[in-house]
Amino acid sequence: MEATQGTQTQKQATGIGAYLVRHLREYGLLFALIAVMAFFQIITDGTLLRPVNVTNLLLQNSYIVIMALGMLIVIVSGHIDLSVGSVMGFIGALSAVLIIELDLPVYLAMAVCIAAGALIGAAQGYWVAYWGIPSFIVTLAGMLVFRGASLWLLEGQSLGPFPREFQVIANGFVADPFPAAIGEALAGLFGVARVNVLALMTGVGASVIIVWLELKKRAQNQFYGMQVEPAAFFWGRLAIVAVALIFILFKLATFRGLPNVLLTMGVLTLIYAFFTERTVTGRRIYALGGNVKAAKLSGVKTERLTFLAFVNMGVLAAIAGMVFAARLNSATPKAGFALELDVIAAVFIGGASMSGGVGKIIGAVVGAFLMGVLNNGMSIMGIGIDYQQVIKGLVLLAAVIFDVYNKSKRT
């Protein structure tokens, strides 16, 4: 009898509920994003998920997502970068001066801007890594310096427009290589005006790849005797992710197809996810943020990793700056103002820990889109910018409180 009760208790402890409690940090954000999207979809009478709004949502948050990838690396390593918004604005101004005033070829100007971003990151990372100056102070100084540099470079005025070759970075769409007849047939099948076959096939293909990779990972974990998700939860999660991905890509397919910037975000996300989860250097960055003294004693070159984290952040801020400028079709002195707060908030909401050593790339991306959905949904509802700031601040505070609460439970 006692053995039977023990077996029942063990089964309960390994059920879906117990698994969710143990992994609430990982899956809570996904459920929160779904809930927020469902809420705004209902409140806005379906406006949130209209094809044109889904496309705008991706375009408007592209630079946040790009910078969130770099900010996650910085925060995981135990630091923070307050200058990313100002650096983004400065690089946008630099690209305008190079392309419009100096008439440099677009791709040469882009290379110069990326190099400038790397130099800015290196300059800040040098003081943090090798002189031990707190990153908060160094990047706060950088925020002021590059905000002033943007004003000086543009002489306080907006500069534009950019040539079409530069605008397509943010506003262009990938051409559909499939015959128009296939798109017309699918449009008739789904009862819509148009279907971009490439976008639809991308959604289906990406879903199939995700399911295959997850099945492969689960089989490997079972082979080595590692704990796996309860079967019902595993299949439910896969179904939600696959259906959501196909649904979003279908919405894009019925508008103008795949935005160029979506490919940029997708490629960068895959690269950084692989880097953080599958490479030795990526694991060392987590070790650096978890315990810098222990990492150093283990032979990790902590100063170099910190330095490279800031160089990487500078490069991504430069890319985001060009995307932002291309989307606006001009460089403005106020570009990127206070944007660092949205980037940092996205990373913390995405599950990163304030003390470093914890966080995932996918979490940062989902956190960025959660912030984007909040912004977009509240704007559609006509909520003023004052209330929007209050609500976003409360969401960030809730995420940090949740992080602290989880830590206290584990200890």
Q: What this model shows, in words?
A:
It is a single chain. The protein has 411 residues and is an all-alpha fold. Helix content is 77%, strand content 0%. It has 18 helices and no strands. The protein has helices at 2-13, 16-22, 24-43, 51-76, 84-101, 106-131, 135-154, 164-171, 180-190, 197-223, 231-253, 260-278, 280-290, 292-297, 302-328, 339-349, 361-380, 385-410. The longest helix is centred in the middle third of the chain and has 27 residues, at 197-223. 38% of the residues are buried.
Structure characteristics:
about 400 residues, mainly alpha, disordered N terminus
Summed up:
This protein is mainly alpha-helical.
Query: DSSP helix count?
Result: 18
Oligomerization state? single chain
Work out the strand percent. under 5%
Whole-number average pLDDT?
A: 88
How many β-strands, per DSSP?
A: 0
Helix and strand sequence = HHHHHHHHHHHHHHHHHH
What coarse outline follows from CA principal-axis ratios?
Answer: globular
Low-confidence stretches: 1-13
Helix content: over 70%
- Rg to the nearest angstrom? 23 Å
Q: Tell me about the biggest sheet?
A: none
Structural class label? mainly alpha
First and last CA, distance: 34 Å
